[in-house]
Amino acid sequence: MAQTVLFVGLGNMGSGMAANLLKAGFRVLACDLNPEAVDALVEQGATAVSSLPELDASSVDVMITMLPKGEHVANVYMKDSPQSLPKGTLMIDCSTIDVETARNLGEGATERGYPAVDAPVSGGVAAAQAGTLTFMVGGEAEHFERAKPVLRAMGKNIFHAGGHGNGQVAKIANNMLLAISMIGTCEAFNLAEKLGLDAQTFFDISSKASGQCWSMTSYCPAPGPVETAPSNRDYAPGFAVPMMLKDLGLAADAATGVGATIPLGDHAKAIYEAALANHPDKDFSVILPMLRQGELAS
Ligand code: NAD
User: Fold this and answer.
1) What is the pLDDT of residues 145-174, one digit of tens each?
2) Residue 67 near ligand 1, beta carbon < 6 Å
3) Which pTM was predicted?
């Protein structure tokens, strides 16, 4: 019989992910504070949940959360989840949240008889809709194996990163590196241009030389060389500045907690704070036009 997934959080990401579960044959119980988001999924075959705590959850095999922050996930795990949720229900949190909360919630739920994994994603709204997300999973190996077929309906690459919270560790460390490499790529394009080298020529050379990186070859911040990059759509996201800043904040807090120094991560956060002030709706590659216009001059 088809597995039943209770999906909590049908926003930009969750709506596409839940739709892919339906397409793969899962039964989906759709829950969001926003009734329009629930209705949109019901039209695709889901069943609406009107009250999460009062839901008859006796048929639920898996609960997925895709919520903004740790406090929202904690609320659902500790307060709002259905009274009738059967022991053994697999809890998969796909939200990007702080490592400490992820560890506490994952360990606590597992101890209470609800096997839990953190499974944050890489890839934005387009990947959520296309079912091509990358999942980074923290939790016990046997629970990772149980989560895999569910995650496979929503993603292409699924990695076990270790124990509780390690999915979040992989996610924030990766995104901190991405922020740093994007800023570096933008600085290189700006410098080359100001010294008389056009963007396409610099791209042709550097993408085959030692400066090559994903920010350049897959997501070029200079309009032209990479057709699908947000730079060719006036920096419409893509991966918006507030999202990047959120992840850099999580990285900075986690680094403080373990005494890891992240001088470039801290600097990247300050640069994205400036980007948020002037370009809150833009893609995180907007750093290049900011440099071109002297917005980051100290
Ligand atoms: P979103 O704000 O679009 O969606 C969150 C949804 O959760 C909203 O529809 C909201 O109504 C709902 N919600 C909040 N509290 C709830 C509750 N108690 N019960 C039921 N529903 C509730 O956010 P999003 O862009 O979908 O992002 C979700 C998570 O995924 C975040 O942690 C984000 O950092 C992460 N993420 C986002 C992207 C992206 O490109 N958007 C990429 C990777 C990871």
Assistant:
1) 999 999 999 999 999 999 999 999 999 999
2) yes
3) 0.95
Confidence label for 190 from pLDDT (cuts 50, 70 and 90) = very high
DSSP 78: I
pLDDT beyond 90 at 124: no
Does residue 127 line the site of ligand 1, with CB under 6 A?
no
User: Domains in the chain, please, with CATH?
Assistant: 4-163 (3.40.50.720), 169-292 (1.10.1040.10)
Q: Which SS3 state, helix, strand or coil, does residue 90 take? A: strand
Query: Which sign does the torsion angle of CA 104, 105, 111, 115 carry?
Result: negative
Nearest by Cα to 104 from 79, 84, 78, 122: 78
> Which atom belonging to ligand 1 lies closest to the Cα atom of 96?
32
- By DSSP bridging, strand 121-122 and strand 133-138 are antiparallel
Atom of ligand 1 nearest to the CA of 122: 43
Structural tokens at position 284: 């995180």
